[in-house]
Amino acid sequence: MNRLRRLPIDVWFEPLIILVIGIGYVLWYRSTTFTPTEQASLAWGNLQTTILEHVKLTVVATLIVVVVAIPLGIVLTRPALRRLEPIAVNVANIGQAAPAVGLLVLFTFWLGTGFRTAIVGLVVYAILPILQNTIVGLRQVDHRTIEASRGIGYSGARTLFQVELPLAVPVILNGVRTALVILVGTATLSTFIGATSLGTLITTGVTLFLPKLLISGAILVGLLALVIDWLGRLVELAATPRGIS
């Protein structure tokens, strides 16, 4: 009980919200009469494939963004390349400022339709939060701490990996969580360029005027976003060094 009280409120409260929404959806699903099209779309076999494809889009895009944005953020905080930071951030901001649908459609002219094009569009759209948080996290590390580590003989690389990055972890992982939630929502738009996602349920519901299918798609996307956000919070909590809030 004492351990539970020491946990941040969102760590245990968010699963309660997920549980309540999930149970409410299941009860609604069991008590509702669906059309043949809705039944086919929401059958477990089809729904499982749709959810897995949506998760695949989100996870692959996130992994690529992390591999690109975190090293780039680290490089841009080094004295030799610090002057390039505004340029890199402004370029990354173009992806965030542009409408997601517009980005995806533009990339179809270059790469065609399908999974690969959706991934490229999602990566461009979600790179800013991780890049910016990496830069901010490393910049907020106290210079006296860095100087102390260099003073006891740590090299620049050792200082980076054993001092700066551990202290910047909470901010960096918060950026990763933000990107994940953005990607879960934005991945629904990939249905417009031929990539399977939960957006298929939403667009089918709108096109054929099937409100129950539309509601199901929206609820499932929201639940997936909440679950991924909560899992990201657990990783953030576990990776944060003790003594750092």
Keywords:
11 helices, 0% strand, 80% helix, MetI-like, 245 residues, mainly alpha
Q: What gyration radius follows from the Cα positions, in whole Å?
A: 21 Å
Order of helices and strands: HHHHHHHHHHH
Distance between the termini: 20 Å
Q: Describe the sheet with the most strands.
A: none
- What general outline do the C-alpha atoms trace? flat
Total beta strand runs = 0
Mean pLDDT: 88
Number of helices: 11
Low-pLDDT parts are: none
Textual characterization of the structure:
The structure is a single chain. The chain is mainly α. The protein contains eleven helices and no strands. Keywords: Membrane, Transmembrane, Transmembrane helix, Transport. InterPro entries: ABC_transp_perm/SBD, MetI-like, MetI-like_sf. This is ABC transporter permease. It is found in: Cell membrane; Membrane.
Q: What's this, in brief?
A:
Helix content is 80%, strand content 0%.
Q: What's the topology here?
A:
Elements: H1 2-6, H2 9-31, H3 36-42, H4 44-76, H5 85-97, H6 100-111, H7 115-139, H8 143-151, H9 156-186, H10 199-207, H11 211-239
